[in-house]
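Same chain as my last thread, 122 residues:
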Amino acid sequence: MDKLYDQVQKYLNMDEEIPFKEFQQFYQDVISKLDREAESFEEDSIWKGLFVVESIMSNAENRAKTTKNASETKKYKKMAKRTKLYAQNFTKRLHQFGYTQEQIGEKFEQMLEEGTKEEVEE
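reply #2:
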């Protein structure tokens, strides 16, 4: 999950959007990994998985609203729907670890800030 987490951090700090094909490939890589391994994730991987799927989900939702290509709009909506299911699963698992919704939100903000710190350090 580390590699996918690092990649999404890079994407989030880019000045321009990645093309549809690259976005779709990243989404497929993430879903493939999650379908194989998500049930066995330990706490750290659950956090990173949540961050990755939330990032894809919000980006796909925004792209679905703004793209002019009807086929891509449909695909973005499907990506958002599928990643939302994983986000809900990971959030539920974090609640089982004892985290509140507020703590999850705070940790999420810290993870967003990590990406911007790494960008400044490079």
